[in-house]
Amino acid sequence: MLNVSNLKIAVIGLGYVGLPLAVEFGKKVPVVGFDIYQKRIDELRNGQDHTLEVSPEELKQANQLSYSANLEDLKNCNFFIVTVPTPIDEFKQPDLSPLVKASQSIGQVLKSGDVVVYESTVYPGATEESCIPVLEQVSGLKFNQDFFAGYSPERINPGDKLHRVTNILKITSGSTPEVADFVDEVYNLIIEAGTHKAASIKVAEAAKVIENTQRDVNIALINELAVIFNKMGIDTEAVLKAAGTKWNFLPFRPGLVGGHCIGVDPYYLTHKAQAIGYHPEIILAGRRLNDAMGAYVVTQLVKGMIKKKIQVEGAKVLVLGLSFKENCPDIRNTKIIDIVHELQEYHIQADVYDPWVDAAEAEHEYNITPVQQLEQGQYDAVILAVAHDQFKAMGAAEIRALGKAEHILYDLKYVLEHSESDIRL
Hints:
Radius of gyration: 23 Å
Strand content: 5-15%
Shape: elongated
Order of helices and strands: EHEHHEEHEHEEHEHHHHHEHEHEHEE
Strand order of the largest sheet: 3-2-1-4-5-6
Oligomer: single chain
Structural class: alpha/beta
Largest sheet: 6 strands, parallel
């Protein structure tokens, strides 16, 4: 069995989750950060991270971390951590192909005594049902005899400089009691907030997938309340502030639910539930409601334009923000795209501006070319869709100056005071 003294870690996937983890381990033990994209490896070797999760100074501090896109460089590693994405497909079904491909790669370099830990969000049972068989098949080794596994779900919050990998409590688990202890010991090398050792891999998987499912359902409730209050002519934010004076009221706010976690994870759980013969009611209802919010926002906007006698067809609308959350360049599963597509259904020209987002990435992912300069007096409506600090700093007057003499300002994120916008969610 391995011990911490001869630990050589490989982190597979150097995105928002993998890189911060590799950097922290690289301050303590030898680490190879592996990614299939050579461009990403070259960027990190040059001391830069385009995700902005890790600063150049932090990269330098990881003096035992090297980067590679060559599988051969993982042969000396004995503790593999998988941090690849787990998206959903166009039918909202789990797409485990990145996990399977990562497992195939690891299987080629897996040795007797090695441990493989998965951090990617999955449904309960996926590690042992979908990943372990691939490792066995490719390596020719026997699970829990020749090699071992664990699951330690990621809790990275992109763009959050307060909650970092070291100060977020970490769930750990292992395929045997001894391996569970070892996995827990390894993570405790870097996790200052401590760890919680789950009873099994399945328990750890289930804990991860319900964290974001719970948030998704709560946000869906607030979104539905917002729709109701809007029909009644009541300001939702004012209601939530009043209700929030009660000590146990949960401070959720309405909005678009995108990103790589909250808008995705529930579909992993519902997929597994349906596979075992149970049809989830509340979870799927919440998903349907949250997925429909982009269309609802545009419906509200169009009604507002009609009331002001602004021509809808052929109108120009500016959408401020494209990333899935504020002060972050991450555009994965951003629901802003739903607003853009819905505007296009009305034959409205939708311009998108986001100082955080890479224009080439937006073009590649969504076929959108963000505008690079804001011009005054150009738009029939402005949607303040993401609460970036830059937009907060502009204030209502500067934002309104982007509109024509007669226009609509829709504040989707409660950035402005109630009186400063025409519509709020």
